[in-house]
UniProtKB/TrEMBL annotation:
Listed InterPro entries: GyrI-like, GyrI-like_CCH_Lin2189-like, Reg_factor_effector_dom_sf
The organism of origin for this protein: Propionispora vibrioides
Pfam families per the UniProt record, alphabetical: GyrI-like
Origin superkingdom: Bacteria
UniProt protein name: GyrI-like small molecule binding domain-containing protein
Domain GyrI-like small molecule binding span(s) in chain numbering: 19-201
Amino acid sequence: MKYEWKKEEKQLYLPKTLPELITVPKQKFFMLKGKGNPNRDSFAEEVGVLYSLAYAVRMMPKQGYTPEGYFEYTVYPLEGLWDLTEEGRKSATLDKDEFLYTIMIRQPDFVTQDVAGKAFELVRKKKPHPLLEHVVFDTMEDGVSVQMLHLGSYDNEPQSFSLMRDFIGKNNLEIASLKHREIYLTDARKVEPAKLKTVLRYRVKPIV
């Protein structure tokens, strides 16, 4: 039986279209930091490098190497942590060139530093790219968070963020970090903007 994150981890990946409170456990990721407008070509290259690593892990048994604890699974979706430079925060309008981001793809629990290292090795042989030197394998834990499913264009996300901030205020919480998380359940290259599905998430903490 293939492990399907959409079925097994619905709470994390298929939330409602209204804000809800959730606790996100520690997770493992291939991660790559960047700056600037995500609509530029180099962003697509960065995403491609992450997917190369994710699929290298997924296909390892076909390369003659089966990691301990390996199981069949669907590759996890692309995620992004988004922030703005100091300059971007001061601006009255959103300047996408001032975005700071970390894009990432989650890895199953059986992926260790050694398994990740093997993935780098496989990709360097088959599909070498200078960006591989900037990708890291690490863990991240969001912990207590507020999230919701945003339907439609990325440019309309402020409406959903506004709902989330109202929910956070009404529940005696505050945003713990200026960075927010996005999980892309659809591929913007293949789906029209109105049909995009994105999980939006803020880390939160109680107001003391």
